[in-house]
DNA sequence: CGGTTCTTTGAGGACCATCAATACGCGTGG
DNA sequence: CCACGCGTATTGATGGTCCTCAAAGAACCG
């Protein structure tokens, strides 16, 4: 049975509510691919032939222009990407590379568009996912434009703290140079920014972040539900 | 007949393909409102009770944090806003103010969500609009992260040039201080950036931009279909 | 263990923000 | 019509932030 290989994504919010028939149609022609770390899967400017889903591993979306590169976001298990370009049948605006060994499910864009037209539950789920990604990008932009680099770092540290079960000590999930790029700064400056946060309750040792004074850090970062 | 007041938007891509019945349902409880210039219609953090459409005039979406403010985008005739928050029934992430005297159509968010579920053509149009806005935001972010402020200004000047029928001389559509905020810089710096662009083929006199050397300006700006 | 990549630190400079002062534009009311 | 006031735009001076370049130290991997 074709769906067997895609059991793992059947329960995702994006696919959970649709009919079995629609799910079969969707995954016909879909496939799973394993990628080694640091492999560019998608280059910006190409057609969006497949909706991608991270089954395991970790993917970075990034963009380049005029010999410069910037990290836009990092995706983990069960995230989709290339959804907007898939729905509009347009060119990808971002490139994608694996950061670790990753398993990626690829669903033909045509399938997504045709099932969208025939399964209202799936249509709703698509809109939900699109809206979520859109709003995440707006938040990202507000973060970049309204905060200094040190404030962005402070809020990033707090967000990871919550994502990792409110642990006061945790490992950074990505390399520092990529974090720097995501936060809109250079690796050198990220290093200095970490030092600047010492008096605000942050210790760093390699990949390990330790929050020594949560109250002080929070007071400095001023996290906001409309940004973070 | 209720739809009479909304004739003007019936032909928009978002509403053009839906059934008359669905359009009636959608506009039931909708209304048109006139706003004077410089009036804040929506404040971030509020619930998104209405989908908004600019019928005439001009609206700026902006955000604030910790006594800072930034312009995210400017909308003109026939643009929608608050679509993502409307679909997900979430809080607005941005505020909106009129820049000129404006006529705004407001459609109850509940109507949008219920018609979405019942009219596939409308659902498709919603996804199209959402994807378009999402991709525009990604472009905006790439512009901010990959280019210097002068490069952003140069590309903005080129983009307006095309929007205004390839005119080599045209009026800026918004105040310079708002343009500065949109481009992620201060008004003072925008002034200096205009001066810096003189040798690259740009003359400025008040609100009037004159491109004196399109080839040189284009060579400097390096516009890119994946950003602009 | 050697090479590569990443990270950190320092020095210097470019870019950008802030502050202050002036000039300009525009609408209002005298 | 002019004077005035208000907000915007410009210009200069200054300081801070951030980037670049360079070099050394640390981590990773074959």
Tally of strands of chain A: 11
Q: Architecture of the largest domain in chain A, according to CATH?
A: Sandwich
User: What's the multimeric state?
Assistant: homodimer
Alpha carbon gyration radius of chain A: 19 Å
Question: What is the typical, i.e. mean, pLDDT of chain A?
Answer: 95
Name the helicity range of chain A. 40-55%
Q: What is the number of helical segments of chain A per DSSP (H or I, 4+ residues)?
A: 10
Q: Per CATH, what is the topology of the largest domain in chain A?
A: Jelly Rolls
What is the CA–CA distance across the termini of chain A? 42 Å
Category by helix and strand content of chain A: alpha+beta
Outline of chain A? elongated
Question: Which chain pair has the greatest contact?
Answer: A-B, 49 and 49 residues
Query: What is the CATH superfamily label of the largest domain in chain A?
Result: Jelly Rolls
Strand content of chain A: 15-25%
The main pleated sheet of chain A reads as:
4 strands, antiparallel
Uncertain regions spanning at least 5 consecutive residues of chain A: none
Question: What's a concise summary of this model?
Answer:
Chain A has 228 residues and is an alpha+beta fold.
